[in-house]
């Protein structure tokens, strides 16, 4: 069992709160991802768990033992750093065995453990090399190897893939996920890359300005963001926002931005009306994949269509990202199948799936429905 | 234009190099001549007699070379260790008054040795260190220059390497000796050369703290050779000077690349 509990944890630097009221239980064998923009406090939180930063207030428990005042080495935690932090004067073998040698393991046991970890990570041919003679991906694997070799209670990873090229990053993502399952370890992973968060995490913690915005599974975070920040930070291309008003015409509730007006599906309308939001100014959030150029969809939902002018087209292979301007009022992004050929300046008819729309309070940015 | 500039730079460097080498060359020529021909101005050797060197060896000069080697090496090794530790503590450890201690250490750089010579002599003598290797070694270890350079180096040292070691179970001292010190070569090598040369060339302090002939260092022995009588045996002095210069020249040739790299790095960073 290796669970980590943060009980109302704060980190203050002079008068600045880097982390505010972080309260979470990380379960045994869970892969938890802390995600957020630079300066949101995710790395500080990780460093507090590691023992590299003092906790200003609150409690940190590892396996129900309070470890606020326990030194990093006594917490039985391993950490993988963004820069890998491999010791350049030691070989791969020496790097991986460093922690075991410090803990005075017998030589034969050290050798056995290092070679086992090297075998898992395909590092056997490189054991006698120094880090300078390794590629970025190999260095990354050595850093992972150094962490797994002593089987710690918890693995901490601070943006471990950010120095790799795009292809290698995808490969290492899979490798780390595989390793997590193979070792059955508790992993706390920090990243600013929402793709890493969505693809790797059992649960995601989205942070901003030192405050946890939302905790949930990737599906929950993507489909049910609690506020505008989470909706905009998670998802690529980013979600579209349109400012408008809720208005009732007859028995139907509409989202009206002046230049466009869409009927709100019954279920969502009911929830909005229950909150007495009729007439309220709100922001509509719609993900790019919920905007269609498919003729069948356009004909089936004529009231949810609008005309737009193509500003830019990004060819992504099987699909296009269409950047369109609606009535010179707002810019939207649509993610459509690469069936039609679009050119800048084309006028297109698009349809919005209002069942997938989110509604945010204009002042608090909280997701209403 | 580029190659034109490079050519002039090369010529300028060559001229400077020749100016630097001529005195050494003249010293070697003089050391191979008899007393009456020692100051002959010739470019090529006119005499090749090794008797001057035999005389220097017979006079016991090599003992002072040995003394200088031992003292310079001891001061350098001990100073490197303590200066590195002090620099690391001042750069990395949080303790009250850290800034003031550093400023105070740095201020000692502004005071020339001549100013503190008498009190330093009195303290060393009262501690019973006069006329001993300890008296020649210990006071030379204290030098803020090394501490300053090490501190500046450690301020830029990648902190993640130390943090990784802490996470692996290393203590502060363990991290310093296992990780930080082995990765400090780029500052240790130029400082080692600088310290060794400074102590090899030291004259004033070894002169006043020691009265025993068997503890003479090279520079004191050379000065005694010059100042011993009415006439100065220049051929003997030049042969002794060649011997005195050999270890430092050897040090330079062996570590030339590292010294230049170290100077370049400390200049750029």
From TrEMBL, chain A:
GO biological process: carbohydrate transport
ABC transporter domain location: 4-234
SUPFAM superfamilies (UniProt xref): MOP-like, P-loop containing nucleoside triphosphate hydrolases
UniProt keyword list: ATP-binding, Nucleotide-binding, Transport
GO terms, molecular function: ABC-type transporter activity; ATP binding; ATP hydrolysis activity
Top-rank taxon: Bacteria
UniProt cross-references to Pfam families, sorted A to Z: ABC_tran (PF00005), OB_MalK (PF17912), TOBE (PF03459)
GO cellular component terms listed in the entry, alphabetical order: ATP-binding cassette (ABC) transporter complex, substrate-binding subunit-containing
InterPro entries for the chain: AAA+_ATPase, ABC_transporter-like_ATP-bd, ABC_transporter-like_CS, ABC_transpr_MalK-like, ABC_transpr_MalK/UgpC-like, Mo/tungstate-bd_C_term_dom, NA-bd_OB-fold, OB_MalK-like
NCBIfam families: PRK11650.1 (NF008653)
Protein name: Carbohydrate ABC transporter ATP-binding protein, CUT1 family
Organism encoding this protein: Seinonella peptonophila
UniProtKB/TrEMBL annotation, chain B:
InterPro entries named in the record: MetI-like (IPR000515), MetI-like_sf (IPR035906)
Any single Pfam family the record assigns to this protein: BPD_transp_1
Family recorded in the similarity comment: Belongs to the binding-protein-dependent transport system permease family.
PROSITE patterns from the UniProt entry: ABC_TM1
Membrane topology: Multi-pass membrane protein
Boundaries of every ABC transmembrane type-1 domain copy: 65-255
Keyword Protein biosynthesis: no
GO BP terms, alphabetized: transmembrane transport
Regions that span the bilayer: 7-28, 69-90, 102-124, 130-151, 187-208, 238-255
The name this protein goes by in its record: Carbohydrate ABC transporter membrane protein 2, CUT1 family
PANTHER family (UniProt xref): ABC TRANSPORTER PERMEASE PROTEIN MG189-RELATED (PTHR43744:SF12), ABC TRANSPORTER PERMEASE PROTEIN MG189-RELATED-RELATED (PTHR43744)
GO cellular component, one term: plasma membrane
Compartments, record wording: Cell membrane
Organism: Seinonella peptonophila
Keyword match Transmembrane helix: yes
Keywords of the record: Cell membrane, Membrane, Transmembrane, Transmembrane helix, Transport
Main location: membrane
């Amino acid at each position: 069992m290796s669970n980590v509990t943060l009980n109302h944890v704060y980190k203050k630097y002079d008068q600045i709160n880097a982390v505010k009221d972080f309260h979470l239980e990380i379960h045994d064998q869970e892969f938890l991802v802390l995600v957020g923009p630079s300066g949101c406090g995710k790395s500080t939180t990780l460093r507090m768990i590691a023992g590299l930063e003092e906790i200003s207030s609150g409690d940190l428990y590892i396996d129900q033992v309070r470890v606020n005042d326990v030194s990093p080495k006594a917490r039985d935690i391993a950490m993988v750093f963004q820069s890998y932090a491999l010791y350049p004067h030691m070989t791969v073998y020496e790097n991986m065995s460093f922690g075991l040698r410090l803990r005075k393991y017998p030589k034969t046991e050290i050798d056995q453990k290092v070679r086992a970890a090297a075998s898992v990570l395909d590092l056997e041919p490189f054991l006698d090399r120094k880090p300078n003679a390794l590629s970025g991906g190999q260095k990354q694997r050595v850093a992972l190897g150094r962490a797994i070799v002593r089987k710690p209670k918890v693995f901490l990873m601070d943006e471990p893939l950010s120095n790799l090229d795009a292809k290698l990053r995808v490969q290492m993502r899979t490798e780390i996920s595989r390793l997590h399952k193979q070792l059955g370890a508790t992993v706390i992973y920090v990243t600013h890359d929402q793709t890493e968060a969505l693809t790797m995490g059992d649960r995601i913690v989205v942070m901003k300005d030192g405050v946890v915005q939302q905790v949930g599974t990737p599906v929950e975070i993507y489909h049910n963001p609690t506020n505008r920040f989470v909706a905009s930070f998670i998802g690529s291309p980013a979600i579209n926002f349109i400012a408008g008003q809720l208005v009732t015409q007859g028995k139907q509730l509409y989202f009206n931005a002046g230049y466009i007006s869409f009927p709100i599906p019954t279920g969502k309308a009911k929830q909005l009306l229950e909150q007495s939001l009729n007439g309220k100014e709100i922001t509509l959030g719609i993900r790019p994949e919920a905007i269609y150029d498919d003729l069948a969809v356009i004909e089936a939902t004529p009231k949810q269509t609008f005309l737009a002018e193509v500003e830019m087209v990004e060819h992504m292979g099987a699909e296009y990202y269409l950047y369109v301007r609606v009535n010179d009022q707002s810019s939207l992004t649509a993610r459509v199948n690469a069936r039609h050929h679009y050119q800048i300046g084309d006028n297109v008819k698009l349809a919005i799936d209002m069942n997938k729309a989110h509604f945010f309070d204009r002042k608090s940015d909280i997701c209403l429905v | 234009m580029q190659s034109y500039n490079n050519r002039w730079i090369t010529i300028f460097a060559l001229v400077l190099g020749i100016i630097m080498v001529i005195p050494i060359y003249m010293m070697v020529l003089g050391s191979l001549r008899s007393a009456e021909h020692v100051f002959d101005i010739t470019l090529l050797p006119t005499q090749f007699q090794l008797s001057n060197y035999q005389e220097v060896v017979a006079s016991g000069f090599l003992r002072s070379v040995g003394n200088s080697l031992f003292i310079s090496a001891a001061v350098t090794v001990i100073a490197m260790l303590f200066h590195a530790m002090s620099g690391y503590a001042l750069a990395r450890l949080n303790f009250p008054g850290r800034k003031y201690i550093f400023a105070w250490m740095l201020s000692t750089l502004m005071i020339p040795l001549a100013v503190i010579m008498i009190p330093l002599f009195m303290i060393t003598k009262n501690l019973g260190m006069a006329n001993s290797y300890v008296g020649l070694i210990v006071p030379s270890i204290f030098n803020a220059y090394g501490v300053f350079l090490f501190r500046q180096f450690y301020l830029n040292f990648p902190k993640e390497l130390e943090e990784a070691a802490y996470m692996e179970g290393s203590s502060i001292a363990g991290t310093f000796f296992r990780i930080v010190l082995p990765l400090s070569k780029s500052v240790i090598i130029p400082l080692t050369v600088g310290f060794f040369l400074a102590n090899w060339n030291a004259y004033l302090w070894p002169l006043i703290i020691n009265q025993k002939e068997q503890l003479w260092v090279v520079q004191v022995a050379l000065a005694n050779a010059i100042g011993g009588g009415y006439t100065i045996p220049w051929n003997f002095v030049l042969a002794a000077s060649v011997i005195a210069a050999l270890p430092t020249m050897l040090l330079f040739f062996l570590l030339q690349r590292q010294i230049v790299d170290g100077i370049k790095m400390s200049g750029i960073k």
